[in-house]
Amino acid sequence: MDTYAIRNTGAPVGARCVPGERQVGVGSSHLPDGRAAGRQAVEDARNTAEPALVVVLASSYLDHRGMLAGIREILPDVPLIGCTTAGEIAASGPGESGVVVLVLSGDGFSVATGLGEIVDGDLRSAAATAARCVDAVEERTNKVLLLLSDGLAGDQQEVVRGAYQQVGAGIPLVGGCAGDDIGMERTHQFFGGRVLGSSIVAAAIASDGPLGIGVRHGWHPVGEPMSITES
Questions:
Q1: What would the pLDDT profile of 56-68 be if each residue is shown by its tens digit?
Q2: What is the pTM of this model?
């Protein structure tokens, strides 16, 4: 999984449109059984407010259908998106071969999810289709679009172009690419209770309060600057 950042919480489309509570919870599990791992992670991530969105990041080694079934046993009707990874990061630190679940809760947000299937390598059209979920959220002061795409499907800049084509440049984008534990063969995306491939999943989040997005990379200089004259 490449990096993504998101803070604050959401509420399903059609929920109360009044300023209210916002919560975020993160849970993780390294249990080998997919269903048990999903249940444990989502139990750890649950909040006191009504859940609005579930984001799932999981190792490709897990039984994903069982994992989603375990999550759905706890939160059967909450919108859910996610993808496979090349390592999972939770509040306790990084890990492998596990699952991390983020649960956004509260009535201070409006959330809608979208799905775009990649046909003939057309990431731009798939991203535009997924990004249409922005039209389904309630009109609030702040909005952000979270996108998770197939990292092996092609040029990920096309995902950004497709999303901006649909929503314009006024809505911030945040997200990442699905991985497969460095197997470089096939990634999966999660949408509701479904396990998909060659897809882009999205969550539009509208908020009464501001949403913060952070970006940072792990590179640092190790020598003097140079000019590249040939490649």
A1: 999 999 999 999 9
A2: 0.86
